[in-house]
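Morning, I've got a small favour to ask if you have a moment. I've been staring at a protein lately and its backbone has me curious. You're getting the sequence in one-letter code plus the fold written as C-alpha cells. I've dropped the whole record in just underneath, so have a look:
=====
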Amino acid sequence: MSEFHGSASRGSAPRPDRTPPPPTRAKGLRHRLAELRGPDVPAKALDARALAALAANPGCARRAILDGAGVDKARLATALGAPSGFGQSQFALTRGNAFEARVKADGGAELLRLVHARLDPGAEPPAGAAVPDLTAHGPEGRTARTALALREATRAGGWTLLDHPMLALEVAGSPAFLEPDAVVVHPDGGWSVVEIKSFPMVDGAADPAKAGAAARQAAVYVLALEQVAARLDPVPEVRHQVLLVCPKDFSNLPAGSAVDIRKQRAVTARQLARLTRIEELADTLPEGTCFAPDRPAEELTAAVEAVPAAYAPECLSACELAFHCRERARAAGAVTRLGRPLRAELGGLATVAEVLSAARGMSGDPADPAVAALRRAAALRAEALRTAAERAAPHPADDPSVSAGEVRACP
C-alpha cells in the first residue's frame, strides 16, 4: 500500500498533520484587501455616495479595487501629488447636520408629517411614532439590529421612524455598510427612504444636478432595503418613491418632495452587477502591491498605474483621484478625457493620435463607420478652410498698384 503525506507506517503511532487548514474565501479576501490598504491603515467605509459614483462608472477597475479595499482616496491623491478639492466643506457639513437635527426634532414629528403629506396621504396621520434604539456593536451588529427593528415595526403596524439605520449591500464580492438619513415604516407595512440635504428647494424645485445625485444615492439605499425585505415573510413593499427634504427657499424651514427613483434604481442595480468581483481584480495585481499613503511616491504611482482606470470629465465631481487620472489621460492622449459620448462614437480609436491618423487617411479601415466619418469631417474642414482663405485673399481691384489693364486681364 502506498503511503501518502501525513499517513503513518503500519505499527507506528499516527503523527498529527501540522499543515494549517486553508483559509476560507472570505478570510482570504479580507486579508488580501488589508494588504492592499496597508497593514496599519484603517479601512474607509464605502458609503452610498461612493457606490452611486461607482455605479456611474462601472468600467473603472481602479476605483472598484480602491473602494473595495477601503483605501482613503483623498489621502492617496495627496500622496501622489494631485490633491483634489472633492468633498463637502466643514461649513456645509455643519449646516447640514444642524438642518437634519431640526427636521428630526420632537421625535421626527415634522419629518413624519412630510412623509404623510408627500408619500402616503391616504394613511392615518402620524400622531405619534415609534423610534426604536438601533445602537449595537460594530456595523454588523447595527445591521442586524436594523433588520430586527424593521421586522418588528412591519408586524406591529403604525408609524415607525428609524433614525440612521445601518444596511448592508454586497458590491463586487465586498460588503458595503450604508447609513441612510432615515427609513420610515408606514402603517400598511411599506418602507420608505428619506434623504435630507442642505441645498435649497426654491419654489418647490431643487437644483437638478444635486437632486439627481440624491436620487442615485437613495437608489442604493432602496436596493439594500430590498435585500432585507426579501428575507421576511410576507415580503414588505419597499417604495420606489423616496422623500427628499431640503430647506425651503433660503430659510431653515424644511420642505419635502417625492422623488420617483425607479429609473435610478434599475440603472444602479445593472451597473453594480456588472462590476468585476474584487477578488478577481486583486488577483491581477503584482505581488506586494500596496496603496498605503506613507509609501514613497514612486511606489504609490506604480501601484495605482497597475490598475486600469476609465477617466471621464464626470469624475471631477465624483472621485478624489480625478486630477491624477486626468493628468495620466492627457499624457497618454486618451480620448476618454473628452467625454464618454465622444469615446463611444470613436469605436476602437482610443487615443487622439489614432483619431488624427485615421482622419488624415494614414491608418484605419475605410469600412469602419468611425474612420469614414472622421475622413469625411476632415475633408469638409479642409474645404471650409480653403474657401475661407480664398475669400480672405485680396482681389487685384483692391490693390492700387495694379493698373486697370492688369485688372481687366485677370480672370
